[in-house]
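User: My advisor asked me to double-check a structure prediction for DUF4280 domain-containing protein before group meeting. I don't want to rely on an old file, so could you generate it fresh from this sequence?
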Amino acid sequence: MGNPVVVSGAMISCTFGMAPSTLNVVVPRALVEGRPVATIMDIAPMVNIAPFGMCMSLSNPTVAAATAAALGVLTPMPCVPAVPAPWTPMAPLTLFAGQPALVAGAMCNCVFGGVINIGMPGAMKTMAG
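Assistant: Sure, here is a fresh prediction for DUF4280 domain-containing protein from the sequence you gave:
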């Protein structure tokens, strides 16, 4: 048995973000439980992955600069997700428009060191493996 399929509107979070966010699927390939299904390539910042409020990663140049200006006091700055690689793991046997389906339990990394996780996949009855 597989994991629940991730659909548009799924709740996601980042280890360095201060607020949860949502995953948006802008190219509907198919509908699962009435919502567009996500694939491992739904990683575009500000399009698929909305900001997580404020970023607390010192690897983020804006956070590092603001923290330095505050004499070393961590100063969060607005989050701008930067994801260089697809979500992993995936459902290799379930393809939508030639791309593996995104499933609950998948994660991707932000270039600023954060790990982006899926909290609520949005689809609860449909599984992929």
